[in-house]
Amino acid sequence: MIKYILKFGKPVIIATDVNPLPKTIEKLASAVGSNVFFPKTSLTYKEKKKIIDDYKHRIKDSHQKDALAAALRAFKNYHSTFLKIGEIVERFKRKDLFDEAVKTVLKKKTENIIDVVRDLIGRKHK
Questions:
Q1: Is 32 exposed, middle or buried (0-12, 13-18, 19+ CB in 10 A)?
Q2: CB of 117 within 8 A of CB of 88?
Q3: Which of 4, 10, 30, 100 is deepest in the core (most CB within 10 A)?
Q4: How many C-alpha atoms does 124 have within 13 Å on its Cβ side?
Q5: Buried-state track 60-97, b at ≥16 Cβ within 10 A, e below 16
Q6: What residues does each domain of the chain span?
Q7: d(CA 32, CA 6)
């Protein structure tokens, strides 16, 4: 499974729709060096249905529904962080650092995005 995932790139976040965090998801995230997202409480059928409503015509089975609901919930959780990172890299005129800034902010679990971007710029100039 890890080889298959890595064919598409290295995931920054692996999400699940259940709490507690399943050990398999925890091991997978650790193996590929990703952050993990899981909700405070497991998503109910109704919640999943509401979350994926705009995409329901593309979903083939319940596994896809669960995976998409988890991914969209994780995105909602991190959305404001992604926007802040986007604003800051744009302010520094370094949109090229967006992906690396996201990885670094999530790995370090820091909210000081400006320092992260400055550090990345400093490393790029060495």
A1: middle
A2: yes
A3: 100
A4: 11
A5: eeeeebbbbbbbbbbeeebeeeeeebeebbeeeebeeb
A6: 2-124
A7: 8
